[in-house]
Amino acid sequence: MEKKTCLYEKHVALGALMQPFGGFIMPIQYTNITDEHNAVRQHCGVFDVSHMGEVTVKGPDAERYVNHIFTNDIKDAPIGKIFYGMMCYEDGGTVDDLLVYKMGDNDFFLVINAANIDKDVEWMKNHLEGFDVEFANRSEDYGQLAVQGPEAEQVVEEVLGIGCKELTFYTAKFADVEGETIIISRTGYTGEDGFEIYASHKFINANWDKLMESGRCKPCGLGCRDTLRFEVGLPLYGDELSKDITPVMAGLSMFCKLD
Are the beta carbons of 197 and 159 closer than 8 angstroms? Predict the structure, then answer.
């Protein structure tokens, strides 16, 4: 049975075209893909990406463990740094591509693809032996908003009241907002400047409403998410990457540190 994100009712109320994706019923478009694509390129668009999976890895061997399962090299990274890379099977085929956030010393936050959550978590658990870490699948706990476009920084600062301008591309921080500790990162899947906010379902609902009421950003569906990522050449697991396609075959060698 298809799952629903914490914003499902909001999408339906806005008249979005809803279809299955990655085990979830997701909004494909609200008005049309061209309008939504251009909103992100020229102004600001907002995506519900609450379907994505989140895993935390903490403990004395957290860095060593993440470096073991991840193609990129996170050793001695500064706190707040984010890395893109993959997890691979023994033959080099791709388990998934993911983001690794270094949130503290021996405190990592991993963001994985919705369709792969169960498979990824199982695969990661199978590689825990010999590492002293606390591993937790937090996918059910977090909702996620992506605020994307050239006006995203002003929108996040002014509409949501979340300080973000000091973040550089591919960095993140914890922020205490409305009595809750959230994660905000300067990342996205659109080729534009933008931010992603990870928080409780309640927080994500309240802040989606603020964004919609502001009139300063447009709700965007998976349709334009695909055209935006395609335009800038970002891979999608299941298309450009799979268990039969290695990161090297996909032209992503720069994210594979073979030494």
Answer: no
Question: Which amino acid, 41?
Answer: R
| 134-137/107-112 β-pairing | unpaired
How far, in Å, CA of 239 to CA of 205, rounded? 31
Residue with tokens 């534009």: 192
Sign of the alpha-carbon torsion through 236, 198, 115, 171: positive
Q: Residues 229, 233, 237, CA angle at the centre, nearest 5°?
A: 70
Q: How much is the pLDDT for 145?
A: 98
| 152 and 225 share one domain | yes
Whether residues 208 and 164 share a domain: the answer is yes
Q: What pLDDT is attached to residue 1?
A: 86
In the chain, the percentage of residues whose pLDDT exceeds 70 is 100
Give me the sign of the Cα torsion angle 70, 76, 80, 83: negative
pTM for this prediction: 0.97
Report yes or no on 189 lying in a domain: yes
Q: What residue ranges of the chain have pLDDT lower than 50?
A: none
Euclidean distance between CA atoms 129 and 15, whole angstroms = 48
Residues 95 and 86: beta-carbon distance below 8 Å: yes
Number of domains composing the chain? 2
Interval 202-235: pLDDT, tens: 999 999 999 999 999 999 999 999 999 999 999 9
Domain that holds residue 213: 27-50+145-232
